[in-house]
Design goal:
The protein is α+β, with helices and mostly antiparallel strands. The protein has three domains: about 1-60 and about 250-320, conserved putative lor/sdh protein from methanococcus maripaludis s2 fold; about 60-75 and about 165-245, Elongation Factor Tu (Ef-tu), domain 3; about 85-160, Orthogonal Bundle (Helix Hairpins). Helices cover about 30% and strands about 35% of the residues. The chain has helices spanning about 1-15, 40-45, 85-125, 130-160, 310-320; strands at about 25-30, 35-40, 50, 55-70, 80-85, 170-175, 190-195, 200-205, 210-215, 220-225, 235-255, 260, 265-275, 275-290, 290-295, 305. A hairpin with a 2-residue loop joins strand 13 (about 265-275) and strand 14. Helix 1 (about 1-15) packs across helix 5 (about 310-320) and helix 3 packs antiparallel against helix 4. The longest helix has about 40 residues, at about 85-125. The two termini are about 20 Å apart.
């Protein structure tokens, strides 16, 4: 909203810059090219900055959607579940954990009672008021209670730690099984939220539970996020995973130079002459930090507008109004 207001104010100021009423910029169209020629004072008012298109070698990446989850397993025990952000998941797991905790308490009570019975049977046998059979039966009851305790603890371990006590965050990525052989399972992934101004962060691969979805033919890969991540469980994210291919060369420009029209088209303004800017169509393949990796775009070395590109966009469509 602030940027749109700035564009409107700049456009108004540009129109008012010439007391004779002449426009501060002229717009011509040659074929599919839109050429914007600014007056020197208008160009100075917009404070435009340009940077040349670069050709860099970048890692080959594949883009996937993912979800932030909370791992409940202790370190080295990847079998315990991971928890998303839905209330149903939380309530269902909390119910299972409460039932498992109850079985542990029940087994503990049975063990305590069995130990008392063994001590009593042994005292009675010493006082010649009991029998060896009574002692053996009491010991058998104690052994059964101990076995029940072992089973209850094992079942509880499968359910992971108590909810709310694990600050770790993982990214769960569903990958088509036919595509997984093309990806590097040992390489770190680049994680970013779906916000337009989100910053990326690296996440290392971890061994998670062997989950998959037979209906969609996907398998789940897991990545551990940094401890200071602000992403929350259940949040949807974009995940870039390196492929096993070496690297590829691509056109690189700063992402703040990219403009989007109402139809989703992507554009940049290229400086083609003194005070002259041409709007050119591009296609962004993916983001690499603050840069955009292009599929198509201007030639290497072409100066494109970074700071002030949105104001040029506003000037082009507001001139004459």
């Amino acid at each position: 909203m602030k940027r749109l207001l700035l564009i409107s104010l700049l456009a108004t100021r540009l129109h008012a810059a010439d007391s004779g009423g002449s426009a501060p910029a002229t717009i011509t169209k040659e074929g599919d090219l839109v050429i914007l020629t600014l007056k020197p004072e208008a160009e100075q008012a917009l404070r435009l900055k340009t940077i040349a298109v670069e050709n860099r070698t970048v890692p080959a990446m594949r883009l996937f959607s993912g979800e932030i989850v909370t791992p409940l397993a202790a370190v080295g025990k990847p079998v315990a579940p991971v928890l998303g952000g839905t209330l149903d998941e939380v309530l269902r797991l909390a119910d299972l954990q409460a039932a498992a905790d109850g079985r542990i308490l029940q087994a503990q009570v049975q063990m305590d009672a069995a130990r008392i019975a063994v001590e009593r049977a042994q005292k009675m046998l010493s006082a010649e008021a009991g029998s060896v059979r009574g002692v053996d039966e009491a010991k058998a009851t104690l052994a059964l209670a101990e076995a029940a305790m072992t089973t209850a603890k094992a079942q509880r371990d499968l359910l992971g730690g108590t909810l709310g006590q694990n600050p770790r965050r993982w990214a769960r990525v569903a990958i088509y099984s036919g595509e997984s052989p093309l990806l590097d399972p040992q390489a770190a992934a680049v994680i970013r939220s779906l916000g337009a101004s989100s910053t990326s962060q690296n996440a290392k691969p971890v061994a998670g539970p062997p989950t998959a979805n037979a209906l969609t033919n996907t398998i789940d890969w897991y990545y551990e996020l940094p401890a200071d991540t602000a992403l929350r469980a259940g949040e949807r994210i974009a995940v870039e995973i390196p492929t096993l291919e070496s690297k590829l060369e691509a056109l690189i420009i700063p992402f703040n130079a990219v403009l989007h029209d109402i139809h989703g088209g992507q554009w940049v303004y290229a400086k083609t002459a003194e005070h002259t800017y041409t709007r050119k169509r591009i296609q962004v393949a993916r983001l690499a930090g603050a840069d955009a990796v292009l599929t198509t775009g201007p030639a290497v070395g072409t100066p494109i507008v970074t700071d002030g590109s949105a104001e040029l966009f506003g000037t082009e469509f507001m001139t004459g109004k």
